[in-house]
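Most newcomers find our protein records easier to grasp once they have seen one. A learned vocabulary of local backbone shapes supplies the integers on the structure line. An example says more than a description, so a record of this kind follows:
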Amino acid sequence: MSALTREPMTPEEIEAIPDDEGGPGEGRRRPWLFYTLLGLLTLIFIAPLIYMASTSFKTPEDAISTVPQWFPAQPTLQAYERVLNDPATPVGRWFVNSMVAATANSLLAVSTATMAGYALARIPFKGRRALLVLIIATLFLPPVVLLVPNYLTLNYLGWLDTLLAVIIPGAAGAFGVFFMRQFFVGLPKELEESAFLDGASRWQTFRRILLPLARPAIATLLLLTFLTNWNDFLWPIYTLFSPEMQTLPAGLSTLQSANSVRYDLLMAGAMISAVPVLIIYSFTQRFIVEGIASAGMKE
């Protein structure tokens, strides 16, 4: 029977077709090697975190033992009780300060970056490309260059030794503006044109149409900004002086100097600092992957 007069193939015949000339299944990639490598990489990355959590529940003697112990022989909450109740190291207050500062800073930074990114992507005005180049150029400046100017500005405003010192300076960043601009560039212009034809203003179009579509990118930028502020160590050291105004990274450095051999206390403080980040990331990882994938490099 010729190929022109042959009857259509049944689903069973289609499934029986080999993957390649070598025979059925030989050309199909086996996933076990990929998952084995992925499991090894995962173990390498989470092993320090597991050991840190385990050490925080150890006794002081087990924490300094020369024989590594992945699981505490005598689990105890002594380190957490000492860290949270010692008036010389108010970790609870540091935690609240870090949470307030990181939350406020990330909300302000995302708000400014979203509006600026939309303006650079969608609103035509003279000098828009030059302004974008100038913003991107600031990414090449090391943050330490701005240390003295920002310090003098905060001193003039009287914001030193307050949470405003770790909230306001990072409320507008070049990376956030560029990131959101790239996302808005990738959205179809027909969405805005349809809204304009229906009588919507530019602000209504931005708030009701584009912002809901930008939720993955906003969630990604929100988490990245939160982590940057949460883990910042150098800036709080220079601008926060009182022990009760410290944030967690700066405060934990004091804990380390005061208890250089109490590794159980150090690991307990590190766990208190790491747990909120892990919780936030577990709830937002889907938006992060989607936001990074959709905010690619576009012209």
Q: What stands out?
A: The CA atoms of residues 75 and 125 lie 64 Å apart.
